[in-house]
Amino acid sequence: xxxxxxxxxxxxxxxxxxxxxxxxxxxxxxxxxxxxxxxxxxxxxxxxxxxxxxxxxxxxxxxxxxxxxxxxxxxxxxxxxxxxxxxxxxxxxxxxxxxxxxxxxxxxxxxxxxxxxxxxxxxxxxxxxxxxxxxxxxxxxxxxxxxxxxxxxxxxxxxxxxxxxxxxxxxxxxxxxxxxxxxxxxxxxxxxxxxxxxxxxxxxxxxxxxxxxxxxxxxxxxxxxxxxxxxxxxxxxxxxxxxxxxxxxxxxxxxxxxxxxxxxxxxxxxxxxxxxxxxxxxxxxxxxxxxxxxxxxxxxxxxxxxxxxxxxxxxxxxxxxxxxxxxxxxxxxxxxxxxxxxxxxxxxxxxxxxxxxxxxxxxxxxxxxxxxxxxxxxxxxxxxxxxxxxxxxxxxxxxxxxxxxxxxxxxxxxxxxxxxxxxxxxxxxxxxxxxxxxxxxxxxxxxxxxxxxxxxxxxx
Length: 460
Known about the structure:
This protein is an alpha+beta fold. It contains seven helices and 21 strands. Helix 4 runs antiparallel to helix 5 and helix 5 packs across helix 6. It starts with 13 loop residues before the first helix and ends with a helix.
């Protein structure tokens, strides 16, 4: 029967679930760090004021700078000048929001007419509000003291101009997640207060980019491993050569016709007297059952009298394929108890995947289980055996190895098995347990079925 389009409903293995949880935790951590970086507060700072006087000695000119050392400001605040002793407000001016790294100059004029002749101390604050609370650590650099002495005033050329445009400052770049502040200077780069030349900075940048590229490669590799699909189950072409010059009535001609009918290496229950059955054995050069053969793909699919039901097809995930290959590799060294302990969990997984897409009303239909094998050319053997049921037992009639066609470096092969559906009087739970036992028995017999022609095979 022709292979049809499939719907892969196999679940991911345990390692896939662990990888998903790890990636989810990493993503949540990065999101949290990004959120913290975006929520970083602004940080205004004010330089110590410089005091000069106007030409007519009527005003004191207070000059200072306000800079933003944190995140960009979003709302305007105030510059407030108060008398230090009494706390009386002397001047208030709006401070517009400053961008990250921005510095702004201010020249504020205070009238001298109402001031005494001796020293008068003032307190100037910038940006003290709900974002930088008074008395908090972040607001320590938001206040400065300065002194005005009318008796010692000396005429100058200062002009009260209020706030000026932002002063020119070297380009600065802040990396929030890493806490870096990079400033481009004329002779190099300043990183968090430490200055390095451009050559060392370029080497560091190249190393950082290489590390970032490596991390991205690891992340992409994890994604490919996590979301890769099970092996494709393409249409299988038998590797046997078809020699048209054979007489169809000769032994070679009959063998060539028979070998396309072999389904697996198991002898089933006879259904009629003199029934003929052909089996095929996949062997290694040392005559081990399934030695040097590896499972490439597996699938299960229901069928009825009209053919395969494509919507019930399940491609077994890679975890099952890898578990099957470990079983094939270890089977010759395992005793009966250990082999059974290895087969039972694998049979449970296969039966669970096979039943996952099947609707309740279709449980009675049989299930086809197909296993695709592959081996290196020259490292494996295929042996056919023709049996006939005589005298209440199977009798071997013929055995041969096929001529192989142009297979390339690898030989493809396939076993087809049939599993019974739900039997009359069997409830759902009993059917699941019985199907699991049937799959375990099938795997056990597949690994234990030796060829009958022991003499020709040089078997002990």
